[in-house]
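## retry 2 of 3
previous attempt timed out at serialization; input unchanged, resubmitting
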Amino acid sequence: MALIMKIIGIAVLAILIAGVVGLAYLSFTSTTPDVRLVNGRLRSCPPTPNCVSSESNAPHAHVEPLRFTKPPVAAWADLKTSIRVLGGTIVEEQDGFLWATFTSRLFHFVDDMEFRLVAEEGVIQLRSGSRVGRSDLGINSERVKRLRVLFEERQVSGSHGG
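## retry succeeded, writing output
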């Protein structure tokens, strides 16, 4: 009986190690996507459940855009501050488009978050997606919720940053 338990323990440990090595491999082999607007809109989400977008029509991927009442320049500054507070890194910003990345502590997976300012509608369209894997366990959706709270707090408080 002790031998069987030892064998089971070794097998479980081997499976865990293989899983960790596999996740680390995914992290290190992920490539930077071609982040840009496509026909004036954010990139589409893939059919996998690891991406959300305010410009998606797919029920599993749709989230609401960020809405603002401040002048667009102040709302954009609030967005950048909210991204930084949430732990993101702004990679690129140009003409009402912003790309930020978020890196997980464990395995250093990188998720891309993109924003498009639509000043005349008082909204900021957004997309958040994982670079690798099929599922993100709801991480991108949760990140959007947390970003929305930070952004809306800044909209109400009147403070902003840049």
